[in-house]
Write a structure and sequence with these properties.
12 strands, six-stranded parallel β-sheet, Rossmann fold, alpha/beta
Amino acid sequence: MAVGIFDSGLGGLTVLEAAQTRLPEVPFVYLADSAHAPYGVRTADDIYDLTCTAVSRLFETGCDLVILACNTASAAALRRMQESWVPEDKRVLGVFVPLIEAMTERQWGDNSPPREVDVKHVALFATPATVASRAFQRELAFRAIGVDVEAQACGGVVDAIEDGDMILAEALVRSHVDALKRKMPEPDAAILGCTHYPLLQDIFQDALGENVRVFSQATLVAESLADYLTRHADMAGAGDSDFLTTGDPRRVSDRATQFLRRQITFQSA
């Protein structure tokens, strides 16, 4: 038994790496649904079905706890899964809430009424499906009032990263930041609402300017996971770490090795 981490592709490796650094004693099984990536241009029902299939596969490997290290899946599928699909002895958690907790400076699990926070103007960079779901705005409204959110759908960025074309990815990021700043010239903070985007965090920061605080998810999710496992130690599990993909294992392994700069070997899911 291990903790499962799921992403439509390889962006969730940023979360996995942070989680392994924070929790070296915990085994992780990572599943990339590379055959169906990217999710960001799919319908909500399609994302839900694909996510349930992938999480079921992680349950089969012995994972009782699965992290959706995919903002699109967290936005379009998580709430529906938790309400009607996840078995009582399993847990599926997303990546939005830890980010919002950090941005609004609320403690993990703080369920007090929403209140005013220092951040007033927030730029959200995410996939088209995440933007369309408005899940970030919904979760933010549970915790803060008076925050203006301007969302920018960053089409093409995930594809470029998955293809290893970082020159194109950088150009697209700068273009999307320019488009956002035409709508919100002076954001206080920026949310990188896709786990692929930390690979280009320096580019986002440079394009936005040094005065904009950029929130990235990997370390925040890792800290929240550590807190969760402190309170639910039985979910940490034991067993062997593994990397699974629905795509071509050799190709995915090569890309993952490039991302993490260490040898990663995927097996067929």
